[in-house]
């Protein structure tokens, strides 16, 4: 019976091509605009590491003296000072953790054959790679010994390895970062996360770094940050060492806490550390304050998905409702025009249920066609977003769930639009049209 309904639907669509095409395009335009905004919103709000997002945490310390204010809702800085990051890393606790910050180097081979390029880098400790599960193509992270005593090592990305070494195993070879030679210990796959969740302070949707060097090299080479640096009081800096000892916040810090007990233990460690620092003249406030947020909480805290994005999605669905209203009017005209035919079918024994089902199937065929065309329009819209704003380049795409959502939403929209016209036409009284023949 269902196949028969599809056959009748196709015949009906062919008999009224203009109205049918108008309805398909109405659904397609509504779906195209809706899926463009919904796809970007979906990529923004996706959990970037779902199997581990509840275990990775970002600690924040309120380093300000009593009366100090910060531009956050809870009055806690987004980042840590260098001294706090180092002290928390060196604390006696068996939790994988790593401070990090963004910088950059001129990368070259000290040869005229390969032109130098400026590449972003991240200074981290070795635990960073296990916390964020960075897959290695060649080699492995540097060792603890290399991290502390021989820090002139580097992990490079796949794209840099392809450019400098034609994709071959480059472990053990050397490259120059600025004017220093670094030995390659590993090559990692290019990071393709749509959200740079490990460093939201420097752009949630910016491209990830392509070089990783030990955090311990920062004071040796006086490496500056390419990220945000903020402070809560006036400080006169006399060189790089004074920056390291200052109250300026510019370092990110992540720790992996797999259980509630581990989170409680690390929270106690933070409080003990703050009390110790308070006894040394820092954190002069009545109530010591800190925060420890996991990845999903951190994304929400930083408002990665803004209110503007939610409003845009809402407006796109409102536009889809306008399209549905227009389709409803077209369906009324199309179905009521066929009332005499329906009356004859009713007289020959067709039930209201069968008439209703036939028209709903017809509407669904139109909706499915509009949904497929809507995917094409959405792809054009996402292409426009990518070409006009590189910041959203990783977000302006449709994953499998969005590709499946488009025809589903189209079918639901067409079903809603077709309910009243189908119900109205199935109530046709056969006697009226039989008397008129």
Topology:
Layout: H1 2-15, H2 17-45, E1 56-61, E2 80-81, H3 82-90, E3 97-108, E4 117-124, H4 127-131, E5 136-139, H5 144-149, E6 153-157, H6 158-165, E7 174-177, E8 180-188, E9 211-214, H7 218-221, H8 240-244, E10 249-256, H9 260-279, E11 290-294, H10 295-301, H11 307-337, H12 339-347, H13 352-388, H14 400-426, H15 430-436
Parallel strand pairs: 4-9, 6-8
Antiparallel strand pairs: 1-10, 1-11, 2-10, 3-4, 3-7, 3-10, 5-8, 6-9, 7-8
Helix pairs in contact: 1-13, 2-11, 2-13, 2-14, 11-14, 12-15, 13-14
Describe it:
The chain is built from 15 helices and eleven strands. The chain has helices at 2-15, 17-45, 82-90, 127-131, 144-149, 158-165, 218-221, 240-244, 260-279, 295-301, 307-337, 339-347, 352-388, 400-426, 430-436, and strands spanning 56-61, 80-81, 97-108, 117-124, 136-139, 153-157, 174-177, 180-188, 211-214, 249-256, 290-294. A six-stranded mixed barrel has the order 3-4-9-6-8-7. A hairpin with an 8-residue loop joins β3 (97-108) and β4. The two termini are 29 Å apart. The model has no long low-confidence stretch (mean pLDDT 87).
Uncertain stretches: none
Give the structural class. Answer: alpha+beta
- State the share of residues found in helices, binned by percent: 40-55%
Q: What oligomeric state do the depicted chains represent?
A: single chain
Q: How are strands sequenced across the largest beta sheet? A: 3-4-9-6-8-7
Radius of gyration: 31 Å
């Amino acid at each position: 019976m269902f196949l028969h309904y599809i056959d009748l639907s196709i015949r009906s669509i062919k008999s009224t091509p203009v109205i049918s095409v108008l309805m398909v395009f109405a659904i397609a335009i509504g779906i195209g605009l809706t899926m463009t905004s919904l796809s970007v919103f979906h990529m923004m709000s996706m959990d970037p590491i779902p199997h581990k997002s509840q275990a990775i945490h970002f600690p924040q310390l309120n380093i300000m003296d009593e009366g100090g204010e910060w531009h956050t809702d809870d009055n806690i800085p987004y980042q840590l000072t260098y001294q706090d990051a180092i002290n928390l890393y060196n604390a006696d606790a068996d939790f994988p953790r790593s401070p990090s910050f963004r910088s950059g180097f001129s990368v070259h081979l000290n040869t005229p054959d390969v032109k130098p390029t400026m590449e972003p880098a991240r200074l981290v400790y070795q635990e960073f790679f296990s916390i964020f599960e960075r897959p290695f193509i060649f080699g492995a992270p540097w060792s603890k010994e290399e991290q502390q005593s021989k820090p002139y090592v580097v992990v490079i990305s796949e794209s840099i390895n392809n450019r400098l070494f034609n994709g071959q195993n480059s472990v053990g070879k050397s490259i120059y970062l600025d004017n220093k030679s670094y030995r390659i210990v590993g090559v990692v796959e290019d990071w393709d996360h749509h959200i740079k969740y490990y460093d939201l302070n420097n752009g949630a949707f910016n491209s990830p770094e392509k070089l990783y060097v030990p955090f311990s090299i920062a004071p040796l080479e006086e490496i500056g940050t390419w990220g945000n640096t903020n402070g809560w009081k006036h400080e006169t800096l006399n060189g790089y060492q004074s920056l390291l000892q200052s109250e300026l916040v510019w370092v990110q810090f992540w720790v992996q806490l797999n259980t509630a007990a581990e989170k409680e233990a690390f929270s106690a460690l933070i409080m003990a550390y703050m009390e110790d620092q308070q006894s040394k003249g820092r954190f002069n406030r009545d109530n010591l304050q800190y925060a420890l947020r996991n990845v999903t909480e951190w994304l929400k805290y930083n408002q990665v998905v803004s209110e503007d994005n939610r409003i845009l999605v809402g407006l796109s669905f409102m536009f889809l409702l306008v399209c549905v209203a227009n389709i409803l009017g077209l369906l009324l005209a199309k179905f009521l025009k066929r009332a005499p035919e329906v009356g004859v079918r009713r007289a020959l024994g067709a039930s209201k249920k069968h008439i209703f089902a036939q028209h709903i199937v017809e509407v669904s065929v139109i909706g499915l066609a509009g949904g497929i065309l809507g995917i094409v329009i959405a792809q054009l819209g996402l292409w426009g977003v990518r070409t006009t704003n590189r910041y959203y380049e990783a977000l302006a795409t449709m994953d499998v769930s969005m590709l499946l959502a488009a025809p589903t939403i189209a079918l639901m929209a067409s079903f809603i639009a077709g309910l009243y016209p189908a119900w109205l036409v199935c109530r046709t009284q056969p006697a009226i049209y039989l008397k008129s023949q």
